[in-house]
What does this fold into?
Amino acid sequence: MREKIEFELERLRQLLATHRELIATCREREPTAIELSALAMLLHSFYTGVENIFKRIMVEGDGEPERGEAWHRDLLDRMATAKGSRPAVISIELRDQLDDYLAFRHVFRHVYSFELSWEKLGPLIFDYSDVHAKVTAEVTAFVWQLPAAGK
It folds into this structure.
């Protein structure tokens, strides 16, 4: 499991590196419609990658997948909670921050790109690097608690 999670973390690092220049540009000026679409895809890809990590931990570590209509929310909550001998994967603070990205994921999947709003997207973009760093740090700390062979 450790190697698979580390691979996903590397993919998230590549995602940030690919968009770093665009994020910096948006600190100087409001993005164009095309740039806004690219930023929306960035946020969607980021949360999808984070969720992939959480699903792997749950299936391989906890032994059971989330089910039901609210499984995305349940998965996020579950990662902030210890289960049996597994410690919490992320802090409550990070869970609360990721909740905003989960909410955006839902919006992204249900609106047309021309309906996106920079006023709503901007705060997520400007917090993205910090949230990404917290995800990397907290998930890495969790992974290094696993047995060397990985479960």
About this structure: The two ends are 6 Å apart (CA to CA). The chain has a mean pLDDT of 92.
